[in-house]
Write a structure and sequence with these properties.
Blueprint: E1 5-10, H1 19-32, E2 36-41, H2 46-55, E3 63-66, E4 71-74, H3 94-101, E5 108-109, E6 120-123, H4 129-141, E7 146-151, E8 155-160, H5 165-176, E9 183-187, E10 201-204, H6 210-213, E11 220-222, H7 227-246
Parallel strand pairs: 1-2, 1-9, 2-3, 9-10, 10-11
Antiparallel strand pairs: 3-4, 5-6, 6-8, 7-8
Helix pairs in contact: 1-7
Length: about 250
C-alpha cells in the first residue's frame, strides 16, 4: 500500500459551492500535502480549472483533468501529460460526429468554448435513455465509437470510446504510481459516475444529483454534508477505514 493518498475530485458543486467549507478543505489539504496528492477533474477544460485555482480558494493540485476526461495537464506548468487520450484515429473524427448528429433536431450544440477535437458537447434537455441510445447507435452505424455522457438532464458530451472521467482518473493514478486502493474520488453529478467503477474509494457529496445518490456499493460513501464539507467528511471516513486495515 502506498503511504500517500491520491485524491481526485470534481470541481463545480463538489469542492466549489460553499466558500466556508472550501476554506476548511484548503486548510486541511495544506496540513496534509506531504501525504496527499490532489487532482482536480472537471467537465471544464484545464485552462478554466486553472483560472478557478487562481481566483478562488481551491488548493493547487498536482494534475488537472479537463474536458470530461479528454485532457490531462500538469499543474502549474500546464504541460500535457503524455500518452492521453488513447483512442484509435479510425474510430474518432470530431467533424464527422458533428455532421452525423446534425440530423437530431433536439440536439443543440453548446458554444464553441465548450468544444474540442475530442469533446463535442450538446444541450439535450430531459432526454430518456432510449434517446441517448439512438444517438449512440447512429454514431456506431457510421463507425464512430463514442462515449456518451449525459448529465444534469441537460448536457450531452460525446467523447472517444473509453475516454471519460473514470478512465482518465485511472490513467493518472497509474502515471503517478498509485494503486486503486490508495485513490479516493469525489463527485456530485452523472459525468462523475465513471470514476466510481474503477475500484477506487468514492465520496458522493450531500448535494449530489440523483444519479450519484443511487450508487450503493461498499466502495461508495454517501455523505450527508454538502460541497467541500462532504468531501472532508468522506475523507475522514475512508482514512479511518484505511487506518483500521493497517492495524
Amino acid at each position: 500500500m502506498n503511504e500517500q493518498t491520491l485524491l481526485i475530485s470534481d470541481v463545480d458543486y463538489t469542492l466549489l459551492g460553499d466558500d466556508d467549507s472550501l476554506a476548511e478543505f484548503a486548510t486541511w489539504y495544506g496540513r496534509n500535502r506531504s501525504h496527499v496528492q490532489l487532482v482536480l477533474s472537471s467537465g471544464r477544460f484545464p485552462d478554466s480549472i486553472i483560472e478557478s485555482v487562481e481566483t478562488t480558494g481551491l488548493p493547487e493540485p498536482h494534475v488537472v483533468i479537463g474536458g470530461v476526461g479528454t485532457e490531462i495537464r500538469h499543474y502549474p506548468s500546464r504541460s500535457v501529460v503524455p500518452g492521453w487520450p488513447v483512442c484509435r484515429p479510425e474510430h474518432w473524427d470530431g467533424h464527422r460526429v458533428r455532421s452525423i448528429l446534425a440530423g437530431f433536431e433536439r440536439l443543440e450544440l453548446q458554444p464553441e468554448e465548450f468544444q474540442s477535437d475530442f469533446k463535442i458537447s450538446y444541450f439535450l434537455r430531459d432526454a430518456g435513455q432510449e434517446e441517448v441510445e439512438r444517438i449512440r447507435t447512429t454514431l456506431l452505424q457510421q463507425s464512430i465509437h463514442a462515449e456518451l455522457v449525459y448529465s444534469s438532464q441537460r448536457d450531452l458530451d460525446v467523447l472517444p470510446h473509453g475516454c471519460n472521467k473514470g478512465s482518465s482518473a485511472e490513467y493518472v493514478a497509474r502515471y503517478l504510481g498509485f494503486e486503486p486502493g490508495d485513490v479516493i474520488v469525489c463527485g456530485d453529478s452523472a459525468n462523475d459516475i465513471a470514476m466510481f467503477d474503477r475500484g477506487f474509494a468514492g465520496i458522493v457529496v450531500g448535494n449530489a444529483h440523483p444519479d450519484l445518490k443511487a450508487l450503493d456499493t461498499a466502495l461508495v460513501y454517501q455523505s450527508s454534508h454538502q460541497y467541500a464539507k462532504g468531501v472532508l467528511d468522506g475523507i475522514e471516513y475512508w482514512m479511518a477505514r484505511r487506518a483500521a486495515r493497517g492495524n
